[in-house]
Amino acid sequence: MDEIPYQMISNLRPDAATDWRLQVRLTRMWRNMNRNAETVSVNFIFVDALGGRIHAWMPPQHFQQLENNFLEVETYVVRRFVVRRYLPMQNGRCFENDIYIQLNHMTEVFVIGGVDYIPPHVFQFTDFDAIVDAARQNQYLIDVVGILQAVGPITPFRNKYNVQENSIQFTITDMHTSTKVIFYNEMAQSFDQAVRDAVRHPIIVIISSCKAKFMPDEPKLTDSAPTRFFINENHEAVEDLRNALRLADYFHN
């Protein structure tokens, strides 16, 4: 295994080879399900030591032989996979990127330790002023960070199939612009509980891979399968906002 050097995510090229070898942290993992609750793909977000990140996926039949190897936040050597270029009609990409990784039956995964220098998460934040533009496209999802201004209760409703669901609505701000967010079902329940459990206020929220859309005429953010939220995360963007709040309070007082 040592004869093959590590590549960085930024060095990956589509269809150029299959003997790639990455040293990465698994920051997110989720399954895409069909309407019959069957798994159609298993998805991953990998990040490397230079802060590169990439979406990877594999068919469920191959995941069965590897599923015991994967654990979120763990670090791995991943080798023997294919790098693909997204097709123009492939919408809902986890973030703005032209390529992704396809894992298969030849893929090898090894757990490694001693790599604390690989960050636990990587974000590329969209300014709140640009959310309108993000809502005009369907190609990729976005990351945002903001101060929680207001949060409503869990609200039940019936969808177009007459199935009862739940939602929660809240507002976040970057101290200049506010935007509304709607989470559904499990994400709504998790967010409601996380807000109740938060011990540091004001609460600062990071939402990664969320969808900007017009609902109906106003741009809002909502969750999809890859979406994750982070409450008061240990991240420089959170500290920057908190410091800006302190500075604003200082001058107002």
From TrEMBL:
The record's annotation in SUPFAM superfamilies points to:
Nucleic acid-binding proteins
Q: Which InterPro entries does the UniProt entry name for this protein?
A: NA-bd_OB-fold (IPR012340), RFA1B/D_OB_1st (IPR003871)
Top-rank taxon = Eukaryota
Residues in Replication protein A 70 kDa DNA-binding subunit B/D first OB fold domain copies: 6-107
Q: Which PANTHER family match?
A: OS03G0429900 PROTEIN
Recorded protein name is: Replication protein A 70 kDa DNA-binding subunit B/D first OB fold domain-containing protein
